């Protein structure tokens, strides 16, 4: 067989970030407002620190402001709520992102629901989740939005396609399924969500025209699960002894699939591009 076409998320994200920088410049020109994302990190997890740094750096590259607040790992829920309240009240701050996961003593849902829904660039607040579920999205979570943009950019038809999402997380799996089933471009798919309790998961995935792998298990999706010619989107970032791998067994799967995203250089760079787009949207929603 022929090797799959590689969907280059790095290239697509660079193109989107260049377009976004132009939109930011026009917005600043028209309004005098500089879109500003505040990123909050609690604790000193090294991987989270890297992500947070690249998020605020990405803002600056797009002509927006990115500020970073780091709180100690023993921060209480009340202290974090106080910081969120301060950012909610600050008219200079348009977007608020609290990096997950949070330390044990803090209830993530309490924090996410405390963020002003108009500043919720992650799209995790209950009201933004609800709006997406109703098919009238405001802020859409960055990772699934990036996956949808990759499918659109690659010209992969979703209308009438069977899309199988593996993983039912609030951050990726559930919002991804919402986007794919929604009416219109990048949607209109027949969507199945598989998870750890799914019976004969391999047989279900084998019927997919589009597979989105978001389970968080290294090389979980193997070549025998893939219908020849299917599109495979790999959301996984797993650190194993040999380095970084996705949720897809890339080598063998790329010989069966029609198109596939690599790890790294696939979905990852798109996530940041979508966060930057959401930050500009936040500034627009807060500027009359
Ligand atoms: N941790 C892993 N992914 C994400 C994300 O998309 N947003 C936030 N806030 N934290 C994360």
**Major beta sheet, strand line-up:** 1-11-8-7-5-6
- Sheet-strand content, in percent, reads 15-25%
Q: What would the principal axes of the Cα set say about the shape?
A: globular
Q: Return the CATH class of the largest domain.
A: Alpha Beta
N-to-C order of helices and strands:
EHEHEHEHHHEHEHEEEEHEH
Instruction: Note poorly predicted spans.
Output: none
Oligomer: single chain
User: Share of helix among residues?
Assistant: 40-55%
**Topology, number of strands:** 11
> Measured on Cα atoms, how large is the radius of gyration?
19 Å
Span between termini: 55 Å
Q: How many domain regions?
A: 2
* Overall residue-averaged pLDDT value: 97
* Number of alpha- plus pi-helical segments: 10
Question: Which hetero ligands occur in this complex?
Answer: guanine
CATH homology superfamily of the largest domain: NAD(P)-binding Rossmann-like Domain
**What class do helices, strands and sheet pairing give?**
alpha/beta
Please state the second-level CATH architecture of the largest domain: 3-Layer(aba) Sandwich
- Find the CATH topology of the largest domain: Rossmann fold
Largest sheet: 6 strands, parallel
What does this structure look like?
With 288 residues, the protein is an alpha/beta fold. It folds into two domains: 32-118, Leucine Dehydrogenase, chain A, domain 1 (Rossmann fold); 141-267, 3-Layer(aba) Sandwich (Rossmann fold). Helix content is 40%, strand content 16%. It contains ten helices and eleven strands. It has helices at residues 9-31, 46-61, 77-89, 108-114, 126-133, 142-153, 173-181, 201-205, 250-253, 267-285, and strands spanning 5-6, 36-42, 65-71, 95-98, 162-166, 190-194, 210-213, 231-234, 238-240, 243-245, 259-260. Helix 6 (142-153) packs across helix 7 and helix 6 packs across helix 10 (267-285). The radius of gyration is 19 Å and the shape is globular. The termini are far apart. Bound molecules: guanine (GUN). Residues 97-100, 122, 142-143, 171 line the site of guanine (GUN).
């Amino acid at each position: 067989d022929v090797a799959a076409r590689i969907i280059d998320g790095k290239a697509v994200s660079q193109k989107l970030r260049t377009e976004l920088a132009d939109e930011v410049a026009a917005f600043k020109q028209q309004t005098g407002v500089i879109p500003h994302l505040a990123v909050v990190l609690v604790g000193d997890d090294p991987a989270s620190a890297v992500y947070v740094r690249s998020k605020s750096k990405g803002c600056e590259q797009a002509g927006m402001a990115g500020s970073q607040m780091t709180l100690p790992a023993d921060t209480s829920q009340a202290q974090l709520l106080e910081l969120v309240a301060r950012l909610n009240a600050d008219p200079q701050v348009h977007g608020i992102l609290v990096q997950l996961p949070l330390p044990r003593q803090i209830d993530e849902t309490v924090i996410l629901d405390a963020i002003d829904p108009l500043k919720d660039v992650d799209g995790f607040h209950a009201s933004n989740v609800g709006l997406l579920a109703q098919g009238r999205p405001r802020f859409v979570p960055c990772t699934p939005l990036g996956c949808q943009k990759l499918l659109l950019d690659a010209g992969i038809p979703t209308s009438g396609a069977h899309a199988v999402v593996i993983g039912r997380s609030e951050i990726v799996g559930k919002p991804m399924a919402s986007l794919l089933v929604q009416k219109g471009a990048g949607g209109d798919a027949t969507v199945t969500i598989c998870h750890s309790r799914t019976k004969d998961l391999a047989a279900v995935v084998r019927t997919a025209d589009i597979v989105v792998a978001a389970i968080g298990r290294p090389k979980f999706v193997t070549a025998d699960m893939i219908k020849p010619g299917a599109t495979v989107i790999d959301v996984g970032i797993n650190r194993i002894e040999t380095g970084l791998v996705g949720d897809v067994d890339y080598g063998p799967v790329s010989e069966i699939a029609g198109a596939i995203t690599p790890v790294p250089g696939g979905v990852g760079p798109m996530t940041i591009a979508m966060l930057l787009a959401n930050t500009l949207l936040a500034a627009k929603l807060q500027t009359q």
